[in-house]
Design goal:
mainly alpha; disordered N terminus; extended
Length: 139
């Protein structure tokens, strides 16, 4: 692995080009963020934050800010001027039976104050049968 991140993508201070083209690095940095460890520790080092770790963490944070929270794409991926493609993605439809069941149950939650704070969760049927009378709270 190199000693520094690739140069900025598109503009000074931008998230590095390496993040744009390296899905493995993005996956690794996502896990590092989740476990709050430096990338070098993920790769097997002693866990002290190096200058390169800090640069990667800052690039990852900037990358995350550039991702749409809804569709999880970046504007650069669509923009021809930045090397993107207006047809970079296609839509696909899938139906999740779990989400469908949650939406159906949501129809039974009162829309007035009595329904405030009601959360709907999925439980494995066997687990539910073991404790049908136990109150279901998350606190």
């Amino acid at each position: 692995m190199g000693r520094s991140l690739a140069g900025p993508a598109g503009k000074p201070g931008g998230a590095g080009k390496r993040l744009s083209r390296d899905p493995q690095l993005r996956s690794e940095l996502e896990l590092c963020e989740r476990f709050r460890i430096p990338h070098s520790q993920f790769l097997g080092d002693d866990g002290r934050w190096t200058e390169l770790d800090r640069a990667k963490a800052l690039a990852w944070a900037e990358w995350q800010r550039s991702v749409c929270p809804e569709c999880h794409t970046r504007l650069e991926e669509w923009d021809h001027k930045h090397g993107g493609d207006p047809h970079a993605y296609v839509t696909d439809t899938l139906r999740c039976p779990g989400c469908e069941l949650i939406e159906q149950e949501r129809d039974h939650v009162p829309q007035d104050r009595s329904g405030y704070g009601v959360k709907i969760q999925l439980l494995p049927r066997a687990q539910y049968r073991e404790h049908p009378d136990q109150p279901r709270t998350t606190m």
